[in-house]
Amino acid sequence: MGLCLPPSLSEETLQGFKYFRLLGPLFDHLHRAATERDRAGNRQLFYDQYASLLLLYFFNPVVTSLRISLSRKKDIDMGLCLPPSLSEETLQGFKYFRLLGPLFAHLHRAATERDRAGNRQLFYDQYASLLLLYFFNPVVTSLRGLQQTTTLAKVQERLGVHQTSLSTLSEAAYVFDAALVHEVLLTLGAHLRPHLPLAEQAALAQLIAVDGSLLPALPRMAWALWQDDQHRAAKMHVAFAVLRQGPVDVTVTAGNGSERAEWRRLVQPGGFYVVDRGYVD
Question: How many contiguous H segments (helices) and E segments (strands) does the chain have?
Answer without folding.
Answer: 12, 6
